[in-house]
Design goal:
The protein is mostly helical and 130 residues long. It has four helices and two strands; from the N terminus they run H-H-E-E-H-H.
Length: 130
Amino acid sequence: MLKEFGAFIARGNVMDLAVGIIIGAAFTAIVSSLVDDLVNPLIGLIIGGVDFSGISFGLRDAQFMIGNFINAVIKFLIIAWVVFLLVKAVNRMRDRLMRQEEPAPAEPEIPTGPRQEELLAEIRDLLKAR
């Protein structure tokens, strides 16, 4: 059972998935910092010093943190855009590689049959036989 597990882990798909998750988590931290430390203050400057994380309203005992939701939407849009660009780049590279690997179309074969001299000799022989 341990050998099967080792073979499963060693397969490329599992390793690729693990690397993707780790890089995704690190990228999420970068995007969070980008939104919280750069985008929000920039938007705050443009619209008059509003900090999204502080936008909220309360209803009885519930506190609705609208600003945190806005931050999450901004983070999602940035991550979705970067993933879109990565997928687009990978597809473009794969298409280029596929075009390079395709063999050139084969020359159409010209049907080979008797040459002109052979046909004329055959006709001559048929005429002599008459």
